[in-house]
Amino acid sequence: MSENGDNGTVDIGGSSDQLKEDKKSSNLSVVNRDSQIKNLGEKLLDQEAQVKDKSAEYKELIKKNEATSDSWIEAKRHARQIELYKDSVIENLQLQIKDLEANIVQEDKDAGSDDEISATAASVATQTTPSNHPLSRPPWL
C-alpha cells in the first residue's frame, strides 16, 4: 500500500526504470570485476612463465659455472702434476750431477789423469734415462 493508497500498491522506494538501471550497473560491475580477475589471472600466468624461464636460465648458468669450476679444478690439478714432474726431474738431475761430481773426484784421486776425467764426463753426458723409467715421460702422457 502506498501512503496515499490510490492504486493499492506498495511503494518500495524506486521506479522500475531505476531498478533496471541498478541491475544494469550491477551487471556491468560484475562483468568489470570478472574481466579484472581474468586480466589479473593472465598477468599471474605470464609472471609465472617468466619465473620458470628465469629459473631455467639460472639453472643453466649454475651448470655452466659448475662446469667451469670443474674445468678450473682439473686445470689446477694438471698444473700441479706438471710442477711435481718438473720438481722430480730437477731433483733427479741434481742427484745425477752430485753422483757424477763424486765419481769424477774419486776417479781423479784414483787415476790422477785428465784424459780419464774427460772420458768419464763425456760418457755421463751422453747417458739418457731409460724409456721405461718413470721420469722418462710426463705422467699425463
UniProtKB/TrEMBL annotation:
Residues 1-30, 109-141 are annotated as: Disordered. Residues 37-64 form a coiled coil. It comes from the Eukaryota. Keywords: Coiled coil. Residues 118-131 have a biased composition (Low complexity). This is Uncharacterized protein. It comes from Fusarium austroafricanum. The lineage of its organism: Eukaryota, Fungi, Dikarya, Ascomycota, Pezizomycotina.
